[in-house]
Amino acid sequence: MMNVVTAAAEAPKFADLTHHLAPEVLVRKTNPLKDIIRISWENPHLVSLANGDPHHSLYPIRRVEYEVASAADEDPVSAWRSLGASAPTQLLTSSRDADSPRLHQASLAYGHGVGLPDALRTVTALNNAYHTAPHHVATMTLGNADAITKVFRMLGSAGDYFLADEFTFGPMPIAAEAHGVKWVPVRIDSGGIIPKELERILANWDSRRGKRPHVLYAVPCGQNPTGSTLSLERRKRIYEISQKYDLIIVEDDPYYFLQYDPPSTEAHSTQTQKPFPVSFLSLDVDGRVIRIDSFSKIMAPGLRLGWITSQPAFQQHLVRFIDLSSQQPSGFPQALVSLLLDGWGLAGFDRWVRSLRLDYQRRRDFLLGLFQREVAPGGLASVDVPEAGMFLWVRVHLEKHPRFTRKAEEVVEGGRTNARELMQELFEACIRGGLLIVPATVFVLPTETGYEEEGSVHIDDRSNFLRATFAGSEETMAAGMPILGKVLKEFFADPSTARIDATSTVA
Amino acid sequence: MMNVVTAAAEAPKFADLTHHLAPEVLVRKTNPLKDIIRISWENPHLVSLANGDPHHSLYPIRRVEYEVASAADEDPVSAWRSLGASAPTQLLTSSRDADSPRLHQASLAYGHGVGLPDALRTVTALNNAYHTAPHHVATMTLGNADAITKVFRMLGSAGDYFLADEFTFGPMPIAAEAHGVKWVPVRIDSGGIIPKELERILANWDSRRGKRPHVLYAVPCGQNPTGSTLSLERRKRIYEISQKYDLIIVEDDPYYFLQYDPPSTEAHSTQTQKPFPVSFLSLDVDGRVIRIDSFSKIMAPGLRLGWITSQPAFQQHLVRFIDLSSQQPSGFPQALVSLLLDGWGLAGFDRWVRSLRLDYQRRRDFLLGLFQREVAPGGLASVDVPEAGMFLWVRVHLEKHPRFTRKAEEVVEGGRTNARELMQELFEACIRGGLLIVPATVFVLPTETGYEEEGSVHIDDRSNFLRATFAGSEETMAAGMPILGKVLKEFFADPSTARIDATSTVA
Question: Which CATH number is A252's domain given?
Answer without folding.
Answer: 3.40.640.10
